[in-house]
Design brief:
The protein has 12 helices and no strands. The protein is mainly α.
Length: 220
C-alpha cells in the first residue's frame, strides 16, 4: 500500500489501517484499543483514527473484510480467471481470501464472534453476501434472475462454513480446509447440474396457465 499523504481523509485512514487491524485485534479484540495500536504503529493520531470507525467493532471488521476483497482481487487477476472453468474460478477466489485471513486466525475467530451477536447478525449477513457477490462478479457471472440470488446465497454459506473449518485447521497451508472447500464446491456443482436437468425437463411439461386458458377460451 502506498504511503498516506500529508492530509489524509478518514476514508484513506480507514483503508490504510484496515489490513493492520487484525494484528492487534487478535490481542485487544475488535476495540478502540486495537485502532489505537494500529494508528500508533502507522504514525497516525489515534484520536483521528478512531473517527474512521464510527461503527466500532463491526466497522473495523467491515474495513478488514474490504481489504481482504481488494487483496483477493489482486491475487487472482482477470487474465488468470479468463483461462479457468467456473468451478476453478470460485475455488481460486475462495482460496485467495483464505490465504489473506489464515495468518490472523485469532482475529478472525473474534470477528466471527462479534458478527454472531444478535445485534450484529444482519451486518454479518451483509458482509457475507458482499464477498460472495464480488466472487461471482469476478468469476464472470451474468445471471439476473433467481439464479443470481441462489448462487450468492450458496457461496456465502460455503464460505462461512469453510471459514469455520479454517479456524480448526492449525496447519499453515490449511490442507484440511482446502479439502473441505473442494467437497462443498462439488456439492454446489452437483446441485447446479441437477437443477439444470430439472429446468430442462420442466420446459417440456404442459403449461397449467395455457391449459386453464383453453378451458375458458376454447379454440374454434
Amino acid at each position: 500500500m502506498s504511503a498516506l499523504n500529508d492530509d489524509p481523509t478518514l476514508d484513506e485512514i480507514r483503508d490504510w489501517l484496515a489490513p493492520r487491524l487484525p494484528g492487534h485485534a487478535a490481542f485487544d479484540g475488535w476495540s478502540a484499543a486495537a485502532v489505537t495500536r494500529a494508528a500508533e504503529e502507522a504514525g497516525i493520531d489515534p484520536a483521528i483514527a478512531r473517527l474512521a470507525f464510527p461503527g466500532g467493532g463491526v466497522a473495523m471488521i467491515d474495513a478488514w473484510f474490504s481489504s481482504v476483497d481488494r487483496a483477493m482481487t489482486a491475487a487472482v487477476p482477470a487474465d488468470r480467471l479468463a483461462t479457468m472453468k467456473v468451478r476453478d474460478k470460485i475455488r481460486a477466489l475462495v482460496i485467495a481470501r483464505l490465504e489473506q485471513v489464515a495468518p490472523h486466525r485469532e482475529a478472525l475467530r473474534r470477528a466471527v464472534a462479534v458478527l454472531a451477536m444478535p445485534q450484529n447478525m444482519a451486518a454479518g449477513a451483509r458482509l457475507g453476501w458482499r464477498s460472495a457477490d464480488l466472487m461471482w462478479v469476478l468469476a464472470g457471472d451474468k445471471a439476473t434472475d433467481y439464479n443470481h440470488y441462489s448462487k450468492r446465497a450458496m457461496l456465502a454459506a460455503v464460505y462461512a462454513s469453510t471459514v469455520m473449518a479454517l479456524l480448526d485447521d492449525e496447519d499453515a497451508d490449511f490442507p484440511e480446509t482446502r479439502a473441505f472447500l473442494d467437497r462443498r464446491i462439488d456439492n454446489i456443482m452437483q446441485f447446479e447440474k441437477a437443477k439444470a436437468r430439472w429446468m430442462g425437463r420442466s420446459g417440456q411439461l404442459p403449461s397449467l396457465s395455457r391449459f386453464i386458458g383453453r378451458l375458458r377460451y376454447p379454440a374454434v
